[in-house]
Every structure is written in structure tokens, then in C-alpha cells.
């Protein structure tokens, strides 16, 4: 990927099959992303306006970023990735300039996806400060709104945003023509955990005694990121035990499982 300060561009390599579970969600995203980017002429012909912005929300480590990338891969779109926190931390005016510049580059490189991680930082509710001066967040938000409204004429550009705090997002962004599709990305249920474990052991040599179904049952509240970590760590444990090991065994997975606690609690799942 090419990296200019604060933004990376690439055509992502992740595909839908690399994401375990979330069948319905993947289907919805596929329609909302692939169709308008690949068939923008068909939409104009019928006078149908496609979705311009999609907000993905849900707890950390549950594949919001990966989903956005898989959508980009499927649509073979240039994927511009921006971090809300990084934009926010830039010097006065720099964040807005980077936003405008990214939209400009995305128009030139269309079909494109502009992805905002930690979107709540740039799109936070306006405080209505009484001093009359605008804050960094307000200026970024107003730039983002202007750029998104400008997409009316542009074809083949879609804005995706991810957040763990959907309630912090300013209502102005939720109007039609902006983020008109809001999707909750939940932590994985039993079946999804099994599929995630399958994805992350695909390239590993695992012993026949490894029962991924049992591990899935035993990892309630684990996020996709934590399950990925569990698989990697099991491999390390096997090598630590015997550097000439040829397979990763059930006991290695169990050792790691026992040492881990999920970061999510039941209350955090909404
Ligand atoms: P954050 O809110 O912290 O940015 P996120 O929801 O965007 O998190 P990702 O960055 O997409 O989560 O996922 C983190 C890691 O976890 C990825 O490397 C991915 O491989 C793995 N992962 C998460 N969910 C899944 C899943 N459903 N299937 C396969 N891997 C997953």
C-alpha cells in the first residue's frame, strides 16, 4: 500500500471467505458496496441513487475493518483508509486539508472506498460551544459533510465508517445521502466462532485431536481478534515445547485458552 501521512491506499487482499460468520451482514454489504461501485451506470440509468455512506458499529476486534476491506476487495476498489484519531491530532487546518485531498484522490481513482476508523472522533456531536469559535472536531465534521454532499455528482465513491460509539456520531451524518445504511457488527456467536477458528487454522498444521467445535463452545465472549490470537499463540506454544514439532495439538490450544480472558463483558454487547 502507498502511505501518505495519515492515509493509506491499496486494493485490499482480504476476501469474504476470510471472515467467519456474519453471513447476512456480508450479503447486505455486498449489495450496498459492490453494486453501486461496479454498476454505477445502471443506477443512473434508472435514476436510483445508491447508498453513499455506510456506518459499521460494534465492539472492537469484531471485524469492522476487515469487512470494509473485503468489500473493497470484492469491488476491486481503491481503498483509502483514514484514522479519525489521527486526523484529530493534526495541526490546525491539516486534518481538513487531508480530508479534502483524500476525497479528491478518491474521485480520480474511482471506484473507491474511503474508510474512516474511529469515525466518532471526526464525526462527534457538535457541542454548540457558546464562545463562537469552532473546535477541531467541528471543522473536521463540517468538511466531511461538505465532501459527502459533493458525492452527489461523483460516481463510484463510497464512504465507510467504523465506530465503537455510534451514539457519539452527529445526527447530521445520519441524514439521507450521507450514512444511509447503519449496520451492527456483533461479537461472534457459537457458529461464527467456529468459522473464525477455521479461518485462522486454515494455514496451520493441526493435529486430528484438535476439536474446533469444542474450542468454539469454550470461548464465549471472545472477539474475532482474540480467536485469531488464540490460534497464533497455540502455534507458538507448540514450537516452544518442541522446535521440531510438526503439528499443533489440542493441549497447546488448551494451554493458551486457560491463560486468556475475553475483554468483552456481557454488558458491553448491545
Ligand atoms: P477495531 O474496532 O478495534 O478497529 P474491528 O472491529 O475493526 O476492530 P478488525 O480490525 O477487523 O476489527 O479485526 C481485528 C482482527 O481480528 C483482524 O486481524 C481479523 O483477522 C480478526 N477477526 C475479527 N473478526 C473476524 C472474523 N469474523 N473472521 C475472521 N477474522 C476475524
From TrEMBL:
Where would I find the AAA+ ATPase domain in this sequence?
50-189
UniProt keyword ATP-binding present: yes
Q: Which UniProt keywords apply?
A: ATP-binding, Membrane, Nucleotide-binding, Transmembrane, Transmembrane helix
Top-level taxon of origin? Eukaryota
Q: Which GO terms describe its molecular function?
A: ATP binding
Keyword Metal-binding (UniProt): no
- Membership in a protein family: Belongs to the AAA ATPase family.
Query: How is this protein named in the record?
Result: AAA+ ATPase domain-containing protein
Highest lineage ranks of the organism? Eukaryota, Viridiplantae, Streptophyta, Embryophyta, Tracheophyta
